[in-house]
Amino acid sequence: MSICPLEYRYGSQEMKEIFSRKNILSKMALVEKALLYGLERAGLVPRGISKDMERAIQEVDPRRIDELERKIGHDIMALTIELARLSGKAGAYIHLGATSYDIVDTTWALLIRDALSIVKRKLKHLIEILIEYSEKYKDTIMVGRTHGQHALPITLGFKFANYVYEFTRSYQRLKELEKRVVRGKIAGAVGTMAAWRDKGLIVEKETLSQLNLKPHLISTQIAPRDGFAELICTLAILGSQIDRLGIEIRELMRPEILEIAEGVEKRVGSSTMPHKLNPVTCERICALAKVLRGLVITALENIPLWHERDLTNSASERIIIPHAFLIIDEMLDCMNRVLRNLRVFPERMERNLHLTKGFNMLESVMVEMVKKGVPRHRAHEILRKVHRMALGSGKSAVEALLESEEIRKIFTEKELKGLLNPRNYLGSYGKLIRRTIEEARRIIEK
Question: For 98-350, which CATH superfamily applies?
C-alpha cells in the first residue's frame, strides 16, 4: 500500500530506484564486501575471502532482513547476519571491527553521489534551455517590474539570463558540496579505528578505494552531520530558485498581463469552468518548494548530537534525504517541461510596456537633466511632481512634461520623445547577457 505521494506521484523512476529498499541494502552489502577487502589488504583476515560475498550481494532479500530486524531490533546486525549466512567462510569475518554507521554513512555517500549525478544532469539541461532563450529573446523588449509595479525597460532575454546566473550558482554549489559530503566513513565505534590496532588507515584506504570514495579525515562514530545539512540546504536553495521562476511564469501568465505562459492547450483547467488555463505545473513546483524548505530545519537539528553520537539523527535522515532528492527531481522535471513548452507573447510585452504612457521612463529624463546642470535631487523632485499632477488624467508623459515650464526650458518635444523611448534606455543589457552565458557555459561544460 502506497501512502506517501512520492511513491506514486512525484519523482522519476531513476531517482526512486536509487532510494529503493533493495538498492540501499545492496549498497550496504557492497560496503561490507569492500570492508572485507580492506581487512584482507591489512592482513587481518584471510586473503581472497571477500570474493565469497559476490553471491550475497546479488541475493540479499529485504524481506528476510526485515524479518530478522523484527526479532533482534537492529537493522545493520540483521543485514550482517543474513550476509554471513549467504557468504560461506567469509561470513565469519563480515563487519569485523566496524560500527553500524561505517556501513550506513558510507552507503549514504554512494546513494548521494548517484542522486547528485541525476540532479546535476537535469539542472544542466535547465540552464541550457535558459541560455537558448536568453539568446533567442535577447532583444525582445518588455517592462521590468519592481514591487509588482512598472519600472525601467528590460528584455526577455535579460530576464532569462538572470535565471541562468542563479541556476549556475546552484550548479557550482552542488559540485562543491560533493567534495565534503560524498566521503566514506570507515573508523569503528568512536572513530579511532581501535579494533584494527595499527592497521586502521590501511583498512580505510583499501575499503574506500573499492568504492571510489575519499575518507572523512576524522570522525566520531558517524560522519559530521554538517555535510548532510549543507546538502539539504543546497537542494532547498535550488528548489527556491525553481520556485522563483515558477512564480515568475505564473505572474506573467495572468490574463491581464499574458506575456509568457505554460503550454496548457490540451489540459483541463477547471472541472467547472471550461475557459480556464491554469499554470498548474508551476503551482506544483511552488507547492513542493515549501515542503523542501521545511526539511532544512530537520537537517540543521541533526548537527548537534551528544558526544560521539546519539541516535536522534537516524530516523529523520531516512526520511529527509530521499524526500529532498525526490522533490528536487520532480521540480526539475516539471520546470524543464514547462520551459520546453513555454509560450511567449511579444505583442503583449509591447502593449504592456506602454501602459504607463512613458512615465516609467522618467529616470532617463532625470539623468539628462543632471547632465544639463540641474542637481539630481532637484530634477527628481520636478519629475515626481509632474507625475503626481498627471495621475488619473490620461495624459502621456510627453504631454505632462511639456506642461511644466521648468521642463520646457530644458528640452524640446523631440528630445523628450527620444528620452522616453524604451529602446534607447536598455544600458549594457547585451554585454551583461553575453558574459553571463559565457560564464555559465564554462562552468556546466567542465
Answer: Fumarase/aspartase (Central domain) (1.20.200.10)
